[in-house]
Amino acid sequence: MKFFVDTAEIDAIAELNELGIVDGVTTNPSLIKKSGRDILEVTKEIADLVDGPVSAEVVATEAGAMIAEGRKLATIAENIAIKLPLTWDGLKACKALSAEGHMINVTLCFSANQALLAAKAGATFISPFIGRLDDINLDGMQLIADIRQIYDNYGFETEILAASIRTVNHVTEAARIGADIMTAPPEVIRKLAQHPLTDKGLEQFLKDAEAAGIKIV
Question: Does any domain span residue 217?
Fold first, then answer.
């Protein structure tokens, strides 16, 4: 499973990237606003920092304007993935921009039928939103499983990018189902390394080492 970081905070991306676990970055207007940076400026900095795809989202809602914005975003760097909403106009823009050779991340996916349409329109990535479905008492993980089965049935190459991940359990379940990628905030990624038994075991090891007078250097 590939790990994308869902943030526009440069320091957080750089820290995780140093560990070699960052395969890409996803951003959106809300994250850009939170960073307080200009969208083109911060996206360029992120794209220069990581080797993998960096999703940059259009803000237009009409297909022609989406295509124009997408082309503009694609000039930022070679690893830009143009992020489009899963609307009818978004699908039109996806078809046009993917035909030009651009990477496309179709976002705000909440049904398997939407994911099927995105794959047929040439999406590089489909982003089903797990957490937002859970918020309204629907099973976000079932959506991931449904998309996985449909894509496997027909050999679609569109990668499943599990999004709106809020817990470490979301990561585990998405990996078990077979999502190609997960994108999560830095704090969720850091929590993947945490376990109370690890902390308890380390505490005991350190006590025993001190009692035995063990020093390595």
Answer: no
